[in-house]
Here is the input.
Amino acid sequence: MSEAAARDSAGSADDARTARGRRRTGGRVGVHRPRRALVAIVELLLVALAIWAAVAAWSHGTETIDPGSTIAGVDSFTRYHGGWIATAVGLATAAAVLVLDAARQLVLAIGPRHR
Here is the structure.
């Protein structure tokens, strides 16, 4: 086998792989897959659930205390419970990441525009 033929056969094996090392299936590598839109819808539902849970956790994490007439000039105190507040912040952060990934999934579901 000549050197050029060896290069051509090695090149054809590399051409069948994508940049991440996966084989192509049916010509579609990763864009324009309509099922990704369903993944985006599920992620948006999870976003709604995470936001609802974050609001509930935040309301559990704050407590208003009325000292009565023991301290002059002070109407009330607000006490924050760190575990609940941290849970609310974590859920809000997870919701933000899910929104970004849902947008990415929608872009990949639609696919590139052909000119």
Remarks:
- Helices lie at 3-15, 35-61, 82-110.
